[in-house]
Amino acid sequence: MRQFFLIYAFLILLVVVVFGLRGCKTENTPLEVFPDMDRQNKFHEQGKTVFFEDGRMDRRPVAGTVPAVNYKQSEYGHLQPDNRFRENTYLATGRPEGAEAFGDGIPVEVSFAHMEEGRDLYNIYCAICHGESGNGNGVIAQPRYGYPTIVSLLQSRIMEQPDGEIFNTITHGKNTMGPYGAKIRVEDRWKVVMYVRALQRAGAGAVEDVPEANRGDLGL
Ligand code: HEC
User: Fold this and answer.
1) What angle do CA 193, 197, 202 make, to 5 degrees?
2) What's the start-to-end Cα distance of the chain, in Å?
3) Reduced DSSP (H G I as helix, E B as strand, rest coil) percent helix, strand, coil of the chain, to 5
4) Mutate to test the pocket of ligand 1, among 177, 191, 195 (most ligand atoms within 8 A of CB)
5) In whole angstroms, what is the distance from residue 197 CA to residue 115 CA?
6) Is the beta carbon of 141 within 6 A of some atom in ligand 1?
7) In Å, how far from its chain's centre is CA 127?
8) Rounded-to-integer distance, Cα 188 and Cα 114, Å
9) What angle do CA 101, 110, 202 make, to 5 degrees?
10) The predicted structure's pLDDT at residue 157
């Protein structure tokens, strides 16, 4: 009997707790059992703050910022990269007009300045995987990062590929390598090809390539 009353009282209490205060207004902060991330100390767009001097949560773009161009192409057309490459199939694809096979040759001026740009781009985009010397020992190639398929660019199979094929690999990626066509502009991709060729030449260097007078520096 005692148990019955206890359960009865508990049930009444439960009903009152669940339904009893429905519709009542209160000034108190409601009890939040699971606050999730409803309230956060964060900035909202167009909000006010005392943190910045101008009182705005939005920051102005850094001076010289160029808008990312996509659906507003017509509006920002003048800021777009030069599109003239579209008229030159080989420059744009690595395949001569109408051909299935890749072509050979670098369709941008081969100069020291371009080679340096190619080196900078290679070091930015490729070296993390393929290594600064192209031997495939980039940081990401360490076993703990779990990317075991990275290859050396100095192997003869890749040295024998036509320039257009390397250009195509950069543009579209290959097997387990991602594409870089959207990140590196057309002409700049050719500069990377140029630099990859230089790395391959350096990687295949022999003692005979070093002038006799300097061979002592090699410490051989
Ligand atoms: C995130 C790592 C990664 C980056 C960054 C990367 N690669 Fe690769 N690359 C790979 C892997 C992995 C392969 C081997 C693909 C396969 O066959 O599975 C490869 C293969 C290649 C090949 C050989 C393709 C063939 O025909 O077998 C070339 C050439 C190459 N990369 C050039 C580049 C160049 C140039 C860049 C910089 C623009 C670059 N890669 C950036 C991972 C990367």
Assistant:
1) 145
2) 100
3) 45, 0, 55
4) 177
5) 10
6) no
7) 13
8) 8
9) 85
10) 97
User: Residues 179, 80: contact at Cβ < 8 Å?
Assistant: no
- Distance set, CA 195 to CA 80, 102, 113, 120, 209 (Å): 26, 19, 11, 9, 19
pLDDT confidence of residue 26: 82
- Residue ranges of domains in the chain: 77-206
Domain topology for 77-206: Cytochrome Bc1 Complex; Chain D, domain 2 (1.10.760)
DSSP 67-88: PPPSTTTTTTGGGSPP-GGGG-
Q: Which residue from 122, 132, 151 has its CB within 8 A of the most atoms of ligand 1, so it is best to mutate?
A: 151
**CB within 8 A of 94, min separation 6: which ones?**
102, 103, 162, 163, 164, 165, 166, 167, 168, 171
Q: How far apart are CA 186 and CA 121, in angstroms?
A: 12
**Calpha distance 135→159 (Å, rounded):** 12
Write out pLDDT tens, residues 190-203. 999 999 999 999 99
User: Measured from the CB, is residue 128 less than 6 Å from ligand 1?
Assistant: yes
Tokens matching residue 113: 């300045």
160-175 confidence digits (pLDDT tens): 999 999 999 999 999 9
Cα–Cα distance between 24 and 28 in angstroms, integer?
A: 11
